[in-house]
Amino acid sequence: MANATKCAAPEGKRGRDERMTVIEMQEYMGASRSKAYDLIWSGEIDSYRLGRKLLVSRASVDAYIESRGGVCGSVKVDTWGC
After folding, report:
1. Which of 3, 32, 47, 82 is deepest in the core (most CB within 10 A)?
2. How do strand 47-50 and strand 71-72 relate by DSSP bridges?
């Protein structure tokens, strides 16, 4: 269970409507850069551009993780974890 905190959102950032950068998404999921972009380009994770910055929906990331059985990176977590 100690590893689950690696995937959990920081205390002040638990809103489901929050947007995050691709780097933040990588850290949140424990995914590689190429996996993060693959998920975005395939449409599995919702994203949009704000100027030059590519942002993703935390709710979309959470939905993807839940659809994969609650697996965050290679760590299985409780449903509240990611």
Report:
1. 82
2. unpaired
